[in-house]
Design goal:
Strand order of the largest sheet: 2-1-3-4-5-6
Radius of gyration: 18 Å
Strand content: 15-25%
Order of helices and strands: EHEEHEHEHEHEEHHH
Helix content: 40-55%
Number of helices: 8
Number of strands: 8
């Protein structure tokens, strides 16, 4: 899969270049023909995220995109995912994380970081129920398999992926 970085300054990010040497770079506001390409979109921290993401969706609506944040936070992540982002991560993520995110998104998945996952799981644990289709209330345990619930419970304690795998015998 081809990769395109769009940023406010049109400059390449070293770790993205290290992960994908052939990545193309465009400046925010420039529209590049982009069929079958994965968009890496670096948010400008001095402009409203929603306006930037609206521009991205308008001009690249048929592409999967990953949002890169200089100072990641939950509310900005929610704006990104609501806008259709397939992933949200820190612009300073390492090469191995960047490659993992690209692989997940390219295969049709969505990726969220550990901090955001812990926030979601803590919210779910506090709620204990969620609204289902038609407004009925569903327990969290009823919508997850036993194994998913087991993983979610350990993850919500703040355990790392390695620790979860070790504790639950996941290879």
């Amino acid at each position: 899969m081809k990769h395109l970085l769009i940023s406010d300054d049109g400059q390449v990010i070293d770790t993205l270049h290290d992960a994908f040497a052939d990545i193309k770079v465009a400046k925010f506001g420039d529209v590049v023909k982009a069929d079958q390409i994965l968009i890496w979109f670096k948010l400008d921290p001095f402009k409203p995220s929603k306006l930037q993401l609206d521009w991205l969706v308008k001009n690249y609506k048929h592409n999967k995109f990953i949002v890169l944040a200089t100072i990641p936070d939950v509310s900005e992540a929610m704006v990104a995912f609501t806008s259709g982002a397939n992933a949200y991560l820190n612009v300073h993520a390492g090469k191995s994380v960047i490659r993992q995110v690209a692989e997940v998104v390219a295969s049709g998945g969505n990726w969220i970081g550990e901090d955001l996952m812990q926030y979601f799981l803590a919210s779910i644990r506090q709620a204990d129920t969620v609204d289902g289709v038609g407004g009925e209330s569903l327990s969290i345990k009823s919508i997850l398999t036993d194994r998913e619930y087991e993983v979610a419970t350990v993850l919500s304690t703040g355990a790392s992926n390695k620790l979860i795998a070790r504790q639950l015998n996941i290879s």
